Amino acid sequence: MSETTASTSGTRETWQFDDTVAVVTGASSGIGEETAAALADEGARVVLAARRTDELEALADRIETAGGDALVVPTDVTVEDDIDSLVETVVDEFGRIDILVNNAGVMLLEPLERAERSNLRQMVEVNLLGLMNLTHAVLPLMQEQDAGHIVNVSSVAGRRASATVSGYNATKFGVNAFTEALRQEVTTDGIRTTVIEPGAVDTELPTHITDEQILEQFAEMDMPTLSPEDIARSIVFATTQPQHVSVNELLVTPTGQT
Fold first, then answer.
1. Cα separations (Å) of 219 from 31, 162, 165, 207?
2. Nearest alpha carbon to residue 18 among 7, 26, 31
3. 3-class SS string, 52-95
4. pTM beyond 0.85
5. How far apart are CA 49 and CA 146, in angstroms?
6. CA 34/CA 227 separation, integer angstroms
7. Could you state, in chain order, the average pLDDT of each consecutive group of 10 residues for the chain (258 residues)?
8. Which position among 17, 168, 173, 178 bears the catalytic label?
């Protein structure tokens, strides 16, 4: 990873990126969108990856208007050719990848007895297999660099299983396990890993749900929520630590969420 520089004002120390290249998946909305913008604000050159090109272009305009640097690479993380093309494009453009934020995800909640197998498959392919495959593609580059930071966005659902959430739980438990095993493999290579576990966040994820009963339950919930910016700040916190500091895991919930 590119070296960060420290500046001191009184007792406060701040860190900023120096020519750092960050790839963010699921960047077309929600946590991915705000994370990309926040990393750009810190000085990173951000690569915006998702399926919806129009939304990515709008985010790139937002970042560039604010003085940042953004590259749009439409990507479906369930397509291995897209993954390879994403990595090749970034290397051709910037020569390196310092930060990978695996954020792309879907949440198709259903009781298993009513679940569509296609929904179970989609969650596994997007939330877990896509994350694993992209990490697999990026890892050799980070190993050549002797540095890098892989941030995997999981969920509180990766810590606690709940009725009607079995498929989603399975993918997020998998993300947590994969990240910890990867940490043990690569930490001596100078590569850091962080798993981010958000609680309730106000994003479009609930709109993915097709089960009418669960949609009604969501509509009736009176629960505090985080904003995508709250999670973006957590990711910035983890990735802007000095190289010798590794924030392995961050559980971030709204105050009041039980």
1. 21, 18, 17, 11
2. 7
3. CHHHHHHHHHHHHHCCCEEEECCCCCCCHHHHHHHHHHHHHHHC
4. yes
5. 24
6. 9
7. 43 63 97 98 97 97 97 98 98 98 95 94 98 98 97 97 94 98 97 97 81 75 88 97 96 90
8. 168
Dig out the tokens for 152 from the structure. 């995997």
- Tallying the residues shown for the chain, one arrives at 258
Which residue is it, tokens 């390196």?
96
Cα separation, 215 vs 45, whole angstroms: 38
* Tokens found for residue 229: 């910016």
The percent helix, strand, coil of the chain (3-state, each to 5) is 50, 20, 35
Type of residue at 51: R
Distance CA 113, CA 104 (A): 26
- Confirm whether 168 is a catalytic residue: yes
Those residues with Cβ within 8 angstroms of residue 19's Cβ, 6 or more apart along the chain or in another chain: 2, 45
